């Protein structure tokens, strides 16, 4: 079954008109995810927005899960495959990375992604986004690990803790003023968390 579905998808992407139809459906799928999330996802809304009959959609993607997975792959190629910054300075890297993250959140893709993350414990959603989440998380952790190798941070600094604390601050501030987080506040948050990490407060215990 999986092999046959992949063949259909590839065949649809190859033709000019079919490629446009695929793109329209995927864009409509992302918009519907941003609007409704996964559980309340409406195939009728995707069909109407894309101007494509539902039977044509089901011919390429026999289930909602497969259509959403295709949309996730599309978002992943367009956004998540863009390398995170590597400037040689952790503070500059983090500031730019979070600036991009906040910009992405304001886009329809970012809203769709936020909806999916909110439903990540649903097995179907987890299967659709799991690889992308793991890959992007690894890229963020690598940013911190490079700083450790450069000697900017203590050797046993925990990347997950550092990034989690910083994300919590940035998310809270941006939620209180959507789309209006001032650059100096972002820089202050990064500077504060990195300073704490340099002091050794985010070092992993030897028992772990």
Quaternary organisation of the protein chains: single chain
Mean pLDDT: 87
Question: Class by helix and strand content?
Answer: mainly alpha
Question: Could you list the spans in which at least 5 consecutive residues all have pLDDT below 50?
Answer: 1-15
Structural description of this entry:
By secondary structure, this protein is mostly helical. The chain has helices at 2-14, 16-36, 43-50, 54-60, 64-80, 90-105, 108-118, 123-150, 159-176, 183-198. Helix 1 crosses helix 2 (16-36) and helix 9 packs antiparallel against helix 10. The radius of gyration is 20 Å and the shape is elongated. Residues 1-15 have low confidence and may be disordered.
Sequence-ordered SSE layout with sheet pairings:
Elements: H1 2-14, H2 16-36, H3 43-50, H4 54-60, H5 64-80, H6 90-105, H7 108-118, H8 123-150, H9 159-176, H10 183-198
């Amino acid at each position: 079954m999986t092999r046959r579905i992949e063949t259909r998808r590839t065949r649809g992407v190859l033709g000019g008109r079919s490629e446009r139809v695929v793109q329209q459906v995927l864009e409509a799928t992302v918009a519907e995810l941003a609007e409704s999330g996964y559980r309340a996802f409406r195939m009728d809304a995707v069909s109407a927005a894309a101007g494509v009959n539902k039977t044509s959609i089901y011919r390429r993607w026999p289930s909602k899960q497969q259509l959403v997975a295709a949309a996730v792959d599309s978002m992943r190629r367009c956004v998540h495959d863009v390398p995170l910054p590597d400037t040689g300075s952790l503070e500059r890297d983090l500031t730019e990375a979070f600036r991009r993250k906040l910009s992405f959140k304001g886009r329809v893709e970012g809203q769709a992604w936020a909806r999916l993350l909110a439903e990540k414990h649903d097995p179907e959603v987890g299967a659709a986004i799991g690889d992308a989440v793991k890959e992007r998380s690894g890229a963020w952790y690598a940013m911190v690990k490079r700083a450790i190798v450069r000697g900017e941070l203590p050797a046993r600094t925990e990347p997950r803790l550092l990034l989690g604390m910083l994300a919590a601050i940035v998310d809270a501030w941006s939620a209180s003023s959507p789309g209006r987080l001032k650059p100096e506040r972002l820089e202050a948050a990064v500077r504060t968390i990195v300073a704490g990490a340099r002091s050794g407060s985010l070092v992993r215990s030897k028992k772990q």
